Amino acid sequence: MKAVVDQDVCIGCGLCCGICDAVFSMNDDGKAEACQSASEENHSDVQSAIDSCPVSAISWKD
């Protein structure tokens, strides 16, 4: 599965990158983006990032 970050909602706090930098990074606009798909090893970290996002900007995409 892949996580997606809604660029219109993201406030660029970087929390998701701190939780799972294997999947999330900051783009040139200062907002987070999912640069990799989730793997079996980091799936729970991605879910933690989704749950921790202060503005609920991250979700799963099938």
Automatic annotation (TrEMBL):
Protein name: Ferredoxin
Domain of life of the native organism: Bacteria
Species assigned in the record: Merdimmobilis hominis
Keywords: Electron transport, Iron, Iron-sulfur, Metal-binding, Transport
Matches recorded under Pfam families: Fer4_13 (PF13370)
Domain 4Fe-4S ferredoxin-type intervals: 1-29
GO MF entries: electron transfer activity; iron ion binding; iron-sulfur cluster binding
Its biological purpose: Ferredoxins are iron-sulfur proteins that transfer electrons in a wide variety of metabolic reactions.
SUPFAM superfamilies assigned to the protein according to its UniProt record, in alphabetical order: 4Fe-4S ferredoxins
PANTHER family in the record: FERREDOXIN
